[in-house]
Batch of 2 targets.
Target 1
Amino acid sequence: MPSLNSATRDKLKAVSTATLCTALFKRGLRNQFIQDVHPVNTQRDPKAPNMVGEAFTLRYIPAREDLNPITVFQDRAHPQRKAVESCPPGAVFVIDSRKNARAASAGSILVTRLMKRGVAGIVTDGGFRDSPEIAQLPFPAYHQRPSAPTNLTLHQALDIDVPIGCGDVAVWPGDVVVGDGEGVVVVPARIADEIADEALEMTAFEDFVTERVQAGQSILGLYPATDERNREAFAAWRRANGR
Amino acid sequence: MPSLNSATRDKLKAVSTATLCTALFKRGLRNQFIQDVHPVNTQRDPKAPNMVGEAFTLRYIPAREDLNPITVFQDRAHPQRKAVESCPPGAVFVIDSRKNARAASAGSILVTRLMKRGVAGIVTDGGFRDSPEIAQLPFPAYHQRPSAPTNLTLHQALDIDVPIGCGDVAVWPGDVVVGDGEGVVVVPARIADEIADEALEMTAFEDFVTERVQAGQSILGLYPATDERNREAFAAWRRANGR
Amino acid sequence: MPSLNSATRDKLKAVSTATLCTALFKRGLRNQFIQDVHPVNTQRDPKAPNMVGEAFTLRYIPAREDLNPITVFQDRAHPQRKAVESCPPGAVFVIDSRKNARAASAGSILVTRLMKRGVAGIVTDGGFRDSPEIAQLPFPAYHQRPSAPTNLTLHQALDIDVPIGCGDVAVWPGDVVVGDGEGVVVVPARIADEIADEALEMTAFEDFVTERVQAGQSILGLYPATDERNREAFAAWRRANGR
Amino acid sequence: MPSLNSATRDKLKAVSTATLCTALFKRGLRNQFIQDVHPVNTQRDPKAPNMVGEAFTLRYIPAREDLNPITVFQDRAHPQRKAVESCPPGAVFVIDSRKNARAASAGSILVTRLMKRGVAGIVTDGGFRDSPEIAQLPFPAYHQRPSAPTNLTLHQALDIDVPIGCGDVAVWPGDVVVGDGEGVVVVPARIADEIADEALEMTAFEDFVTERVQAGQSILGLYPATDERNREAFAAWRRANGR
Amino acid sequence: MPSLNSATRDKLKAVSTATLCTALFKRGLRNQFIQDVHPVNTQRDPKAPNMVGEAFTLRYIPAREDLNPITVFQDRAHPQRKAVESCPPGAVFVIDSRKNARAASAGSILVTRLMKRGVAGIVTDGGFRDSPEIAQLPFPAYHQRPSAPTNLTLHQALDIDVPIGCGDVAVWPGDVVVGDGEGVVVVPARIADEIADEALEMTAFEDFVTERVQAGQSILGLYPATDERNREAFAAWRRANGR
Amino acid sequence: MPSLNSATRDKLKAVSTATLCTALFKRGLRNQFIQDVHPVNTQRDPKAPNMVGEAFTLRYIPAREDLNPITVFQDRAHPQRKAVESCPPGAVFVIDSRKNARAASAGSILVTRLMKRGVAGIVTDGGFRDSPEIAQLPFPAYHQRPSAPTNLTLHQALDIDVPIGCGDVAVWPGDVVVGDGEGVVVVPARIADEIADEALEMTAFEDFVTERVQAGQSILGLYPATDERNREAFAAWRRANGR
């Protein structure tokens, strides 16, 4: 797995998932935004930095009743518990719940443990239980919707750190996962650095455009900057703003 | 209908729907959490006590146009209006809207009336109209999503206090309905007392575990407490905290 | 297109979408509430006036990859960009996204431009990107859910100001679009004045009823006012409150 | 319940559900076709007469595990079994399965018993088990899709012959239920006779139009017959064909 | 619109929609198969030639009740009726029904008229009424599922021969529409000739491979023919079979 | 993996998936029927023996565009192709397609190869391409619906013979998969023998009951046989019929 360097991590903290999706789209990657997954904390501060980290995955399959009594958690090697204790600090914990939020993917105790272990955040395409508590934690968590039933009701934890699907997106271990107030995007590990660079450039331009539009300028010729004067104005703006 | 005693009611106000779901799961009841139903007030105080009460039900079927002109409400015996005036104080009013939120299940005037009558809360697997007003009321209300069209558009109120389905859960009159910030769970009347007791015990343990995890302890051997030292620590914690 | 007069506009700013749906229902129009579309700003002030304006529409069809490279936006005549610059001030910009929120309908720069141009609001039955920024703008915006991927991923902008479907509702250019904290309703242009009048009357009555219900009165005979004494009390209330 | 007379029954055997839907639409009834319900026998003879009978209903709610062990069927009063033995000959047995086909509504033995008792047909908005056997029976059966799990898995039989919803349609006991190769329509009891008459007239006209179109005539002025000559031709056709 | 030449038409009659999808995929077109649309005739002869023709489109929006009484069909210029009479012989009539099969897109009389006029086939992403009759016609028709209610219930016919969406696919007038027993694919007009050529070549190879696999050969090295001996065997097979 | 003995295989060929579901239900296994999966051959002979075999699985995740060009199949180790060549004769090939039928899970050439290799059948919770050809093969194949696009469009083949989900059911390698005209059920390997025995007994009883019901007997006391005389009659029937 190519390691996520700290410069790239910092850049990815400061760009939006929307901008990242466009940078990926330009490279033919049209399907990297995790569908129908939202911050658990619906009052999230819009100025908060993004969740950024390499994907560490957990795969669920449907639960069969005889294999999933409440006693399975007495096994320290149970994959859900083992995954929580082995996810590397700085990584994002991503769960393939087959888009099924009718039972929980995890609850506040496990999420708190991940937070304390220095994990960067957690994502499921199912739902979390104890979601009001999770929403209060200073820790990024993303799911489809709250779900109180224990995961054993419908989910059997199986594999740790294998390629999975999450919200219709392929997640390969080590891919860089970025979350903001809008949702979560998966950046393939191989291109994370160049995508971060490009997205940072795009963000500068978008901030410039936003300023101009707020000042009353038309988007025609400005966004994109097909008009030469707007390209000059942007160059001046960059100098003036040190970006 | 076994009557809900006040001790059980108080216990159920202080435990989470997630904990209740696990207690029910242990008894083979895997399907008691009402699916895809959420607090109308999305800024609900996470410290607020739960909604707790015995289920009082209203059943809707699809509306046929000729039977549902606006004038039907002139009939004082119309089941929706009659149900609102006859729901016992302390009960939870639960509507079977067939999971259809394309028209409203009820609006703010009826919900206000229920509140004034001392009803404990209201739940529908459809949607409420006047939802911004309902969100402001000091009264628990749960639905799928806001829906402005009058209920006559798609719903015919039919039966009062019969067994119904709500969000894929069986709701029998007198079942104990509990709602928190996560959603709503239905506890069969017959086992409400024992479930309340067990959930209170579980909550003490979960609070203990949360403290330890916040303090940096691993979940292995702690959650569940397969390690003897953790069981001893929990016993000490209970004594120290009077729980 | 019948022009929306300012008296009607003011009335429509002060009534709820729920009340409008009932007034439309009385005229046999049962399907004017845009389904599953919500304010982008989930912390919207419930006292804020409604979004009101005549519909100005944009139609999307599915995007074909070869017709939708990122370079299409260099064309000043691209329908999405052209629509943003030609939507009349005071109108509501309504997008037919075929209920598909897997890619964005538009982002914050275009929405900001609409705001600066004096447009009254924007509605899509898909999703917006940059939704956290849009939520902060003093501008009404309604969508299904946030969606970061660029619209080119799935949407081809095609037609400007033609009749469309939005959230299963027919939207004809010039129809009056009203949005509150609950959602968005479409009032046919031809009957906008009479609907506004009737809804204002209904709102007075509902406010009266709400007061009485808050004061402890039963809804029977009051809502609707089949009891003569309630009709008299309402008349007195109107005089006392100047409504 | 107004009794279905044999003349009306015979007429309804000979007209299509499509024609009936149009006759109902003319009276403002837009929602009488049971959605997403199909003949179990996918090789049904298109010339077979329609299923026609008065609705006899069975209502299911979600099954709770402790109330639905396999042993419940030892009770002769179990509503599913009792309903099968009490449905009147000539009636159509209609089940409200909440559109849930993940477990069966009934199986071939019960369906065979209904057939032998002279019942006119069976409809569920869920699925049947033993569907290959049911498809072979000379008995009309309609469902959403095959479903092998026993009904106890998800369905609790509750009420017999009450108003229900089936495939989003209101079904009142005694309504006239008509099924052809396309699906099932519910005709309110009160207007069954006049709808049957009108549909028979419409069918004669449609047969005439089909003949003309097969002979190469344009539909303009013919369907509907706004052209006087086509009305004359139809009158002549009726005389010639004795209809 | 580039005209579909008869050589290309003949080639497209003899290749499968699956093969065409692969040829389109190689050119970056991943989304040309109309989703969830099936032959009305479920007993279609698998040896029947494909439906092939240029797209002629009809666009529906949601119906508003006051604009869609049954009397609208008395207008000869009603877009649905006008479209049926103006669709060119040899074209495929494609309807954008917004994937809504709860009311019909058209019925047997209009479909028969299209057949008599020499149209090549009809496709909707909604449903047809009179589907048992349509299934008996010697005319290709594709839909989602049968639907008896008149189109006026939910669909307002609006535009003729404009770009539309159908089953999540962009359909531009003049695109070449091909249907077999599996479903319907849309080939952009500009590349129809080259796609037809390539698909014919691919079909020869697939037929060769099928013969070899039926004779017991492994697919490794054969499909695709990475093994030189298989390429030679294919060359020999082509000579022997004149393909 | 416990090996499936031939006696059990033979028994399972002769009982229905409905009967198996009931036997599993009695053991607390409520979720073993693969949801929304149907025989590709819709004209399947209802007398044909069941598909029976041990599960051999293939896991798909969402396809990322850069990892899934058409050239990947040139790799003999591509998991889809390798799986087809390594599935044991007598096994059932089960694919986890995440219930996504928008692109194919496999096509006729691979299915033919499996057939020639002696595999017992194939199941996907997505769709097959070349489905008309597959329907003609003397080989059991089950899917959700036909789907022409190549699997590379949406599916990345990843793992061979690992536990998967298929149609919301857990499938562990070696589980016994049984398919009839209704659909597919998964019997856990450990209990396959006893389930087969019990289902065979149940089938004898159901055949007896069906005969009696066809002869006009009521189901009360017969199904289940709570009436002693019916138990005696069944015993006599068994002797007479050698079962």
Target 2
Amino acid sequence: MNANTSGDGFWLIKTVDKKINVKGAPYLDMTLCDRQGEMNAKLWDYSELVHGSYEAGELVKIRGSISAYNGQNQLKVDRIRKVVSSDGVDISDFVPTAEYSGEMMLGSIMNVINGVADPELKQLTYALVKDREKEILHWPAAFRLHHAMRGGLLYHTLSIIKLAEGVCRIYPAVDKDLLMCGIIVHDLCKIDEFDLSPAGLVTGYSIQGELIGHLVMGAMKINEKAEALGISKKTAMLLEHMVIAHHGEPEFGAAVRPMFLEAEILSQLDKLDATIFEITSAVSEVGEGEFTGRQWALDNRKLYNHARKPVVVKAELDK
Amino acid sequence: MNANTSGDGFWLIKTVDKKINVKGAPYLDMTLCDRQGEMNAKLWDYSELVHGSYEAGELVKIRGSISAYNGQNQLKVDRIRKVVSSDGVDISDFVPTAEYSGEMMLGSIMNVINGVADPELKQLTYALVKDREKEILHWPAAFRLHHAMRGGLLYHTLSIIKLAEGVCRIYPAVDKDLLMCGIIVHDLCKIDEFDLSPAGLVTGYSIQGELIGHLVMGAMKINEKAEALGISKKTAMLLEHMVIAHHGEPEFGAAVRPMFLEAEILSQLDKLDATIFEITSAVSEVGEGEFTGRQWALDNRKLYNHARKPVVVKAELDK
Amino acid sequence: MNANTSGDGFWLIKTVDKKINVKGAPYLDMTLCDRQGEMNAKLWDYSELVHGSYEAGELVKIRGSISAYNGQNQLKVDRIRKVVSSDGVDISDFVPTAEYSGEMMLGSIMNVINGVADPELKQLTYALVKDREKEILHWPAAFRLHHAMRGGLLYHTLSIIKLAEGVCRIYPAVDKDLLMCGIIVHDLCKIDEFDLSPAGLVTGYSIQGELIGHLVMGAMKINEKAEALGISKKTAMLLEHMVIAHHGEPEFGAAVRPMFLEAEILSQLDKLDATIFEITSAVSEVGEGEFTGRQWALDNRKLYNHARKPVVVKAELDK
Amino acid sequence: MNANTSGDGFWLIKTVDKKINVKGAPYLDMTLCDRQGEMNAKLWDYSELVHGSYEAGELVKIRGSISAYNGQNQLKVDRIRKVVSSDGVDISDFVPTAEYSGEMMLGSIMNVINGVADPELKQLTYALVKDREKEILHWPAAFRLHHAMRGGLLYHTLSIIKLAEGVCRIYPAVDKDLLMCGIIVHDLCKIDEFDLSPAGLVTGYSIQGELIGHLVMGAMKINEKAEALGISKKTAMLLEHMVIAHHGEPEFGAAVRPMFLEAEILSQLDKLDATIFEITSAVSEVGEGEFTGRQWALDNRKLYNHARKPVVVKAELDK
Amino acid sequence: MNANTSGDGFWLIKTVDKKINVKGAPYLDMTLCDRQGEMNAKLWDYSELVHGSYEAGELVKIRGSISAYNGQNQLKVDRIRKVVSSDGVDISDFVPTAEYSGEMMLGSIMNVINGVADPELKQLTYALVKDREKEILHWPAAFRLHHAMRGGLLYHTLSIIKLAEGVCRIYPAVDKDLLMCGIIVHDLCKIDEFDLSPAGLVTGYSIQGELIGHLVMGAMKINEKAEALGISKKTAMLLEHMVIAHHGEPEFGAAVRPMFLEAEILSQLDKLDATIFEITSAVSEVGEGEFTGRQWALDNRKLYNHARKPVVVKAELDK
Amino acid sequence: MNANTSGDGFWLIKTVDKKINVKGAPYLDMTLCDRQGEMNAKLWDYSELVHGSYEAGELVKIRGSISAYNGQNQLKVDRIRKVVSSDGVDISDFVPTAEYSGEMMLGSIMNVINGVADPELKQLTYALVKDREKEILHWPAAFRLHHAMRGGLLYHTLSIIKLAEGVCRIYPAVDKDLLMCGIIVHDLCKIDEFDLSPAGLVTGYSIQGELIGHLVMGAMKINEKAEALGISKKTAMLLEHMVIAHHGEPEFGAAVRPMFLEAEILSQLDKLDATIFEITSAVSEVGEGEFTGRQWALDNRKLYNHARKPVVVKAELDK
């Protein structure tokens, strides 16, 4: 919906607060979202009796009108009700979702694991993924920023694998088994780092996510699993290093810097995929020949849409 | 030659100085090199009459013995003479040289230019390469550090092209024409940035290399050539941006930060290829399970040789 | 106009947006300016039929009243109309403008060029200025910050020349020809870096301004012109270096650091003039014995008005 | 022994290399040490037959003379032989050693553990220390820098405990159980981080020490032990956080920054004890009213010996 | 008072502004505070005749109701009047105040001075405190941040003394006289650095506070007093150094870095006490198991309330 | 003297050490200097009886020969004796010395003080200079780096005054009295910061120079003198601020950043004069078209000798 339009629509409630204005009248202040993005909404003269009560994560149908307010569109709600089954709408239509099914992406990754020759790496990586096979199907890769979508964790992981296949073809020194297993496990503990809404979007960091972080959690998980499976110390140590070093620099959260080739390549490809995602996302929101605003996640750069090709935020993962 | 051995050998003189010791006796202090590396050499009691006179860049035959001195091997010269044609040795055997011929690598790059659909980019890139077709065949990519070898400029360029082909397959938003042309021209002005010895190794930066640098020189060259060929301002500007931004960050020499997708990818792949080269070079000098010393060019990191694969300093460019 | 006053006045519209308030009523949200500064204005219950339609850059007459709102004065518009010729007001009275005429300042600079002994520097500098003689008469030196005024580019350039004359008197090692020519050309490509409103104020950066920047654009222009005029490579290179180095440090946009005396002096005098302008501007807005707020452009410093002299934001350029 | 003296003495060989001088004659180049420090030694005209062969870590008796060479004392060896039991010298007399016995210090720490009220923290901490009770008795706390001495790990740990007791008396918000247990386990994995010589001094980092580091190793050990003992996730997580955060800032190796009071206090007291040790060590080497050279480990500061009290490098741990 | 409550209450006016809303109606916009914190208040349709006029620093009685507005509570004022003596309220009940009386804390500090053996240090420190004995009784230690409370300066000073007593017991190298005197004088010139409201809270920095700062002011005061009392240059210099170095690093305002042991310990303990105060303050505002927002004064960290103990913002100074 | 020459010459001994070589023979290791620079010298087989004994700061006559050793010239001493009066050499011929006499420069500065209209500033500045009138005549401005010469302090101060006169002519907002007095006193306490050799060169920092620094010492001196003369607090405070802020940034030693116009101008002109001195010094040591090595004092830059003018390290102070 654009500014100065009115009508009906379905929305997912991302946040909702009951407030009282300066005249003492209660109103609802909500953030609504769909696949395209978010909008602020106000329901003036809110009455629980009349309008019902709402929580974050619920799907609603709203009638209202949109106006510009401080440079942002704002939806004035006239009517609101919860979605019912006869509306035929599905929550996954209201959250950004990876373009490929979780099953397809996990299948591709399992194929990669199958192709690993080193028996220790293969067994360890398989076990680590297997433990999370339910959550991994839909987990996002981030809170905000790159791949903050249902299935984003697999999407991001598989994109890096595709990049790494190209790298392995070119540089014979790269140990492909080690690189692939490192890629597959590097972000697995994002599953413990975030709390998720029922709709599958990150609502914030877990306590362990804040206090320990997915890098060190990942190392602890590998250590535990390797011990349980009788994997050699050295194999576990190499994977652990790749996980705790994959942010590259201490200031970006790496516990140590990458100290062997595959750890460095993982770190650089991780950054490359994330950057491509963030640049295309940012540029897709401005017109031909325009610049985006400063992007916090991209060192505060503005990005230019040169419009030589359509800007699609996508990786081809099925080829 | 190893420590505590003696015998004959051919060497290239990299530097040579006539000095006088504390007793007043003259001696020659030289740096000799071959494909494997460098060594200090001393010719005590030097007499021009007896031994002849020598300059950097000459090939010589030496008889002498090697001993450890302050943790470095040092060659004590007993006899020395210049190489003669009957010795059958060739200068290119004494400098590090790319594994593929300049002609083969330039041919591959010309094929890539041929495949560019955009006529302006194709014409401009072709003309820029054509202007340097003689020097580019053997030019190194660096003074010290990555690809400081005969033919290193083409080697490095072609390696990035190979990486970029993988990236283009995965991300449909990438404009392949623009990316490939940016890669091909990004380091061309290294030809003006370095002074070269007759043997084809960089001896230092040129005055223009210091005062202007290959990034801005590259932009000026594109601007000039585009004007001459009647190429549109926009096309020239995009290539110029890619060249002056390819070091990524101002602190690494970028005049501006990359502001569109292809400029960013060029910058990251440039770094990826250089890093892989430097890590494999460094690791190839230590044994299994050992760490290198701190590498200045790699943020002062030590690198670990896990020895899961032979460490080869190489990119496969002929596949 | 001060808070809590009402009356008539002429204003220049800097920005104007049509918005709709939470009750659905349309209103105009404008930024108005005159030589003293800017003010937000609201025209409630806006009707195009009744009030007419307006664009940025137009001069208008407004009746209204001013009140404090969130610590800022705000103008409530009662009546508005476009200026007509019989109003006798001129757009240059509504934008900050240099204290000296463009013609006078350009004349002084041409005199300096006339005094250059080195024929190459003289010819090259003259040609570069001549090419821009129309725009240079009124071009500002910045978007925001120092010398963001009509004629600011000449004002800033001439101020540095005056400073440099003092420096040349003191230090015999300084090559005055080179320093003066470097000063004259150092910011010339700000003419390509900004987009201008009809009123002569910067409205933002041009695309080339963002992607290339006025430093590298300047070097390309010198390179082009030197080639056309048959100027020696060395002369062009020295000027190019001064231009791409004049921001002093990479983090402030310099492509290289200054590497000879005149380049360093240009860089420091450029900063000195800009800083004096910014400090006097900031301090002129607070009373005796008071501090300004933190100034972003001055490393976040607060400045103190010691009030020992009247604070005038001015350079004496006609002596 | 001072410069320009000669005579007999016992030394520990820290490093030993067989080298050949420029005249082709073999010699031994050694670093010798005793409790006071180190000295370079040369045995000219070395012959294995005549002098015997030596390894790092051996105790030797040497006759020779000391001279200044490049501002450092150097020992010219005339005679050398291995120590025999009748010499009555003990290796622990030749390495810097903590002032209290390992048994006494470990006893004090065990008392602290006994005083912990929280049963989970008590059990977990006890088990972690128990696992290392053999090594901990003599382990140093560092390679170079603070507490690089036999028993230094216990010495440093107990010093922090003493500091923490004072802090707990003053601030009622501090959870003493948590703080004490965090202190006791924070550096335990230094036992895995260093390789030790037979004499009990660190010879370098272990592979795991380089690739993982004692912070993340510590977290993995706690995680493993807590699982084995059935300790709650939360208790383990708090201790793990304290360990991976105790270096305070990412640039000093912390995987995360301290996020609760006890983690912050541990981090600051760890730094306080280390700094006091380093300052007193540095100052003890210069005379009254003098400054030390720049201390790399103390942000490159010079330190001043004001000589108001005797400079003793010591903590009182038995009170 | 919580959101959505109404009733009567006493408040201290921290700031008050007369404003006019977009309809032209005047209103009062106030910040009110009591010991628990601050709240914004609006008095709509303000009339000086009806409501009276008010200034910052006055105590008032207000009837009104509280609602949430933009996530902050806001008080809508229905009635307001100044406090009269019969209300029986005291200004010190409305500003955060140290838990111990100024007299008790100053007494403890005088005892410490009495215990100093060095006659010069004792005389100098006594004289410096004596000069400020009136202001020191109630002065706060900061504008915002740690110990921004009546009596905060003594509270903070005495807390550091308690910490230092622990340190002196452990490390025999510490000169206790010097350390104690340094602690006592280190922040004394905060008395000149801040301007105070009648209620004893900092309203901002004094001109001298901004231009010179309490570190250099402290050094000048010591220098002056030492001269007057005939104290030796060396003693004065040591104290002066401790004062100008106590912020530890130039980026935190230290004029030099600490260069002897007692200066370093002062700097670290100063930071330790401040950090403990700030962490406990921040954590006391969130519930069990929650994180605070990012704390600007704590390197932008979030802090975790692990809730193992009650969070009290307090130091025990009477034991 | 150049390499491979021999003969007689006079030298000043900068440092001298008696050492013993590996064969046990004593030798003298000296640093000698004259106005052109320094050289290492060795007197082999030194015998006090034969050669006499020597101390730093003595003038000697030496016969010997110069050879290159490790890229540096080294003087082998054959004969040495102390200078006698009949040699007719003067110590001031052997240390770098300002081009103008101390009396002439001090006279110029006294003229500037005479021209100050503000009676407080005039009286205070005069008194501060008068106190040091003996030392100021010959004091250097630095240990190493810019103006490390006899009379360098006056030379540097007068150069800045000349620069400032130009600035005052251009910008009417500058308070000339304040700026001139700030310049004259800004470095006065360098007289307390350095220890001097009899020859008038800095031998190192004084204890007070290290612990307090010339910036804070300067502020203390102004404070003391202003009190003694009954100068107003405000006048003293402005000068004190200029002194403690004149290094511009905390990382370069400023206790606060400059907060008014004259303080900022002082700081920038101080840097400008120092930079011009350092660039011309560095460039004067390389040939036409060459680059210097990296200059530590100039942000590690290399400097280029474009040779358009003779490189003279000089300021014209007598015009």
